[in-house]
Fold this protein.
Amino acid sequence: MTHLKTLIASGLLATIAATSALAETNALPPLSTNEYINTRLIAAGIGHEIRETCPSISARMFYALWQAKKLQDYALDLGYSHDQIDSFINDMNEQRRVTGAVKVYMAENGVVEGNTESYCALGRAEIAKKSIAGSLLRAR
């Protein structure tokens, strides 16, 4: 699946993390192991899945873009380069890892593939609890 690429194209993830190989070159751990980065990547994926499936929920695009910029700045402040971040975004293994985590979270929270209302219910719940994913969404 290319859900993470879709997020990137939407500007929700703008440049976020770095590849393991390049990170090791700089003696930095891969950002894929950074809890802050992962939490936000997964939240963005959850928000994306919900807004793509539930017709009564949309993205808060300007807020999402601002959050993506903050996440990029966070990675840069840790010492990762733009090239490292871009490499991570295009890494299919990382995309599959994040997509897998999104699917697990959604299934654990009642989402049933093909059941639009289950996506909407999760979206409303995320918005109500003001989660990271919920902060990226708006009920119409």
The two ends are 27 Å apart (CA to CA).
